[in-house]
Prior knowledge:
By secondary structure, this protein is an alpha/beta fold. The protein has a single domain (42-345), classed as TIM Barrel, CATH 3.20.20. The chain is built from 13 helices and ten strands. It has helices spanning 2-16, 74-83, 102-122, 138-152, 174-183, 209-212, 214-228, 231-234, 253-262, 274-277, 291-301, 320-324, 331-345, and strands spanning 34-35, 38-39, 43-48, 87-91, 127-131, 156-159, 187-189, 240-242, 282-285, 306-307. Strand 1 (34-35) and strand 2 (38-39) form a beta hairpin. Helix 3 packs parallel to helix 4 and helix 4 packs parallel to helix 5. The longest helix is centred in the N-terminal third of the chain and has 21 residues, at 102-122. The N and C termini lie far apart (43 Å).
Amino acid sequence: MSTRRAFLRAASGAIVAFSASGARAQTPGRKEVKINGRRVMVVDVHAHCVFPEVARVSGVTVPRAVPPTLVMGPERIKIMDERGIDVQALSVNTYWWYTADREAAKQVVAIHDDGIAAWCKQNSKRFVGLSSPALQFPDLAAEQLEHAVKNLGIRGASIGGHVANEPPTSPKYDPFWAKAEELGVPVFMHPNNAQNIARDGSLDGRGSLANIVGNPLETTVFLSHMIYDGTLDRFPRLKLCAAHGGGYLPSYVGRADASCVVRDDAKCANKRKPSEYFRDQILVDSMVFSTEGLRHLVAETGVGQVVYGSDIPFLWPDTIDVIAQAPFLKPAEKEAILGGNLRRLLKIEG
Length: 350
C-alpha cells in the first residue's frame, strides 16, 4: 500500500499546489490555469453524478453513490476549484437503466435530466449537462434527447458502449443517431467494465482489470463498430467523444486501417479509413496521464479532436498540467485542448 500512498500524495500535490506553468500557487482556493501568463478556461467533458431519488421509481437495482461526492453539492465545486476546472459537463453513467422497461426508463431518464438541468441552472457558470437517454428504445431515446436539448438546455448525450451486449450500430438505432446529428449535439461514450466482452470472470483478480483493461477495451470495440458498421458514414455530421483517450484504438489505428484491405472476412461497411474518422467525427478525452500518451493522441487525431477529461469524483492523475506543460504543443493548442474545443462543441460562452 506504500505505492498507493505515494501516488495519492503525488496526485494531491499536483492538483492543489501547482499552477499550469509549474509555479506554486500564491493563495489557497481556486486554482488559475495559465498559458504564457494568461488565464485560460478549462472545460471537463468527463464528470460523473448520480441522483439517489431515482431508486424510488426505477424498479431495477440502482448502484450506490460511491464515492458520496457523486451526489452533487458544494464539495464538487470545491474539487473543481482546487484543480482549476472552470466548467464540467455532467453525466450519469453505468447505464443500468438500459435493462428497464419502457415506462421505468422514461422515469429514470426524466429524473436524471431534470436533476442535471436544475443543478446547471443553479450553477450556470460552472456546469452544463449531458442527457443519458434510454438507448434500448431508440425512438424513445431520440425523444428524450430532443426534450433535454430543446426544453432543458442540455448540451448533448452520454451513452454506454452496448445495449444488452449489442453494439448500438445497426439501423435499429438510427433514430437516436439521426436526432443527435439533427440537433447538432455531441454524444459522449463512457464504458462500463467491458461487461459485453469480457465474461466468465476473465477480468477478475488483482489489478482492477475490469476497469483498467475493460473500460478502454469496451471503448475500442464500440468505436470499431461505429466505424466498420458504417454508422458514422450514415451520419456524417455526428460528433462522438470517447472516454479514456478513445480506448486502445488510437494506439493501434494503423492495424484498424489495414483490416478492410488485408482481411477477406472483414466485410467493412465504412467508406473511409478508420484513422480518418478521428480527424473529424471522433474526439477523445485526455485521460492517458502521460506526456508521451498525449503526444501520441495528438499525432493520431489532431489537436482539434482531443479534449480535457477528469473522471471526477473518482481519483485519477490529473492531466491539466500534462497538457499545459506539453513541449510539443503551441500555446493556442494547449488552450484548445484544455477548453477551447469543448467550448465550441458544447456551446459554452467564455
